[in-house]
Amino acid sequence: MTLRGRWHYLEHDWWAEEGGYSFEPPGDIHTLVVPDGVEEMVTLFHVTGAYIYVDPDGNPVGVEDVFTKLGNARRHYEDVGLGADFADQFIR
Q1: Are 52 and 63 in contact (CB under 8 A)?
Q2: CB 6, CB 35: distance < 8 Å
């Protein structure tokens, strides 16, 4: 859901605009761009799988999912002195 502003993917000809909804099929490769002149873009992304980051040739270079996010949160909370288990309160 695009809540404010507008954006698009370089690889597609459609635009996401304020009040609009877009759907990305699994495996879609894209580059998000907010055009010049858009002061603020706010979009709610609801992701149900992993992000797979690729290089310009389409080769996977990284993965981000709920498990890597949780690992990053645990490291952060440990580093700032709250303890890694601080993240457990966010897990049901």
Answers
A1: yes
A2: yes
- The DSSP-derived string for 6-69 is EEEETT-S-EEETT------TT----EEPPTT----EE-----S-EEEE-TTS-EEEEE-HHHH
Whether the pTM exceeds 0.85: the reply is: no
Domain map of the chain by residue range?
Answer: 1-46, 49-92
Bridge-partner residues for 2, per DSSP? Answer: 43
**What pLDDT digit, counting tens, does each position of 13-51 carry?**
999 999 999 988 888 888 999 999 999 999 999 888 888
Residues in the chain: 92
Structure token digits, residue 64: 């981000």
The CA distance from 52 to 5, in Å, is 26
Rounded Cα–Cα distance for residues 52 and 23 (Å): 17
Separation of alpha carbons 43 and 24, rounded Å: 14
